[in-house]
Amino acid sequence: MLFKKKQRISAKDPIIPALQAIVGEEDVLYRYEDLVAYECDGYTIHKGIPRAVVFPESTEEVSAVVKYLHQQQIPFIPRGAGTGLSGGAIPQNNEVIISLVRMKKLLEVDFYNRYAVVEPGFVNLKLTNAIADKGYYYAPDPSSQYVCTIGGNVAENAGGAHCLKYGVTTNHILGMEAVLANGEIVELGGVPDVPGYDLMGLITGSEGTLAIVTKIKVRILKTPQEKKTVMAYFDKVQDASQAVSDIIAAGIVTAALEMMDKVAIEGVEAANFPVGHPRDIEAVLLLAVDGLAAGIDDQIAEVVEVCQKRNVREVKVAQTVEEAQRWWANRKTAFGAMGAISPDYLVQDGVIPRSRLPEVLARIGEISERSGLRIANVFHAGDGNLHPLILFDSRKPGETDLAVKVGSEVLKVCADVGGSITGEHGVGIEKKEEMRFVFTDEEIEAQLQIRDVFNPQQLLNPDKLFPTPSRCAEVKQAAHK
User: Fold this and answer.
1) CB 3.0 to 4.6 Å from 87: which of 174, 215, 365, 429, for a disulfide?
2) Span 224-235, mean pLDDT?
3) Is the pLDDT score of 409 beyond 80?
4) How would residue 470 be classed by pLDDT, with cut points 50, 70 and 90?
5) Angle at alpha carbon of residue 383, lines to 216 and 273, rounded to 5°
6) Averaged over 21-34, what is the pLDDT?
7) CB–CB of 141/221 below 8 Å?
């Protein structure tokens, strides 16, 4: 084990001195008033207090902490910035949290070979800011990119507005260093087309249940020569939805293609970044086109023409970079903006085929009317990734449970039309039972067997991702009872 110099220890829990011996006395939290800050992530409906929070500063310290916890059979959870929206970093049984926020270095940038190496606590947007003056950027851009970490992005396989053209996190990971559940350090990827199993791809999106990633090699891209942003207002959601399909069908590869409905527009206009959206429209499309400067104007003209054929009320092109940034800030802060019109909200993350968008939005509207809870729809329209925001008031008895039930109904609609229960926010605690909407017992069992290879004793982020009871035999036994 790697140990720091011995320091004065005053803690009742016997694991605290051992953890402090590894990372230092000041790098272990164990008092309730400190631990309460870690009782949840961005999914606040469930909460739990960890046994302790540990702050390693290197791969070796992560390994030493994990080896100790593994030897003592103490469960543990890796955590980044805590911006996850499915409860993946929430303690349920007094687990120890291994916080990676102090592992936040940009270790290497190679512009010639177009890659960067970062530690897991490095904030997403800081990478683009660090390389922008050289004409490069990092493509994955979750709405929380100004605070979320790249390690957390790897855990959830995060997307963002630009994943329509550029793909999600897994499309930009070239290699990684990781600590397994027993403390062993491994290196994966790093060379294109490595033969054998795609273990790097398997860990990306595994929500911290297979390994703790401690170093990430990511692809960086040249900044496009030109980028333009278009805003289009529609009186009918169906017209906006059809315009999305028409734009894709026309062969226009937009960098981003976003949509908000009337309730979402009400929220963003009442919050910190209003841009003057008309309050009587049913939908707004926000899209970006980037690439070589020579072809941008022609693509913009095609987009405008498609929108006009679908009864657009108004379509406009941002005239300055500052105007475009205001439009995107309005969209990217949409989740938090719901706080301006509702005491609480629950965000969902379903995926559907683009062609089923009008039908699914209509069914979501029916669920909203039947339940009495307003639902604001904000989504990556280009790739069919919906984010219905269910507005509720937790102070009213039963409304929190009702919101959770409504969220499950929305995900069932997505699954019924051939979609998925998550596109980028993950399963975590929130969608464990909804896994049955898209997987059979046998398919879940196959995934559990893979997990058991990496995490056989279920010490690493236990009781996440899979429904309970999770084993096929347990499922059948429960059904029989």
Assistant:
1) 429
2) 97
3) yes
4) low
5) 80
6) 97
7) no
Report the alpha-carbon distance of residue 67 to residue 3 in Å, rounded.
12
Burial class (CB in 10 A: 0-12, 13-18, 19+), 223: middle
Mean pLDDT to the nearest integer, 58-80: 98
| CA distance linking residue 67 with residue 73, whole number of Å | 10
Report the C-alpha dihedral over residues 342, 346, 347, 351, rounded to 10 degrees.
Answer: -130
- What is the 3-class SS of the chain, one letter each residue? CCCCCCCCCCCCCCHHHHHHHHHCHHHEECCHHHHHHHCCCCCCCCCCCCCEEECCCCHHHHHHHHHHHHHCCCCEEEECCCCCCCCCCCCCCCCEEEECCCCCCEEEEECCCCEEEECCCCEHHHHHHHHHHHCEECCCCCCCCCCCEHHHHHHHCCCCCCHHHHCCHHHHEEEEEEECCCCCEEEEECCCCCCCCCHHHHHCCCCCCCCEEEEEEEECEECCCEEEEEEEEECCHHHHHHHHHHHHHCCCCCCEEEEEEHHHHHHHHHCCCCCCCCCCCCEEEEEEEEECHHHHHHHHHHHHHHHHHCCEEEEEECCCHHHHHHHHHHHHCHHHHHHHCCCEEEECCCECCHHHHHHHHHHHHHHHHHHCCCEEEEEEHHHCEEEEEEEECCCCCCHHHHHHHHHHHHHHHHHHCCCECCCCCCCCCCCCHHHHHCCCHHHHHHHHHHHHHHCCCCCECCCCCCCCCCCHHHHHHHHHC
Instruction: Report the amino acid identity of residue 318.
Output: A
Residue 400 in contact with residue 392, Cβ under 8 Å? yes
What are the tokens at 50? Answer: 């960890």
Query: ∠ CA 148-59-51 to the nearest 5 degrees?
Result: 70
Predicted local confidence at residue 195, as pLDDT: 77
Q: Residues 276-282: what's their mean pLDDT? A: 95
Is the model's pLDDT at 421 over the cut of 80?
A: yes
Spatial distance between the Cα atoms of 127 and 172, rounded to a whole number of angstroms: 13
Least confident of 44-58, 194-208, 315-329: 194-208
What does the block give as tokens for 201? Answer: 């791809």
User: Vertex 366, ends 438 and 268: CA angle to 5°?
Assistant: 90
Residues recorded for the chain: 481
Higher-confidence residue of 417 and 474: namely: 417
| Phi, psi torsion values for 340, nearest 5 degrees | -80, -15
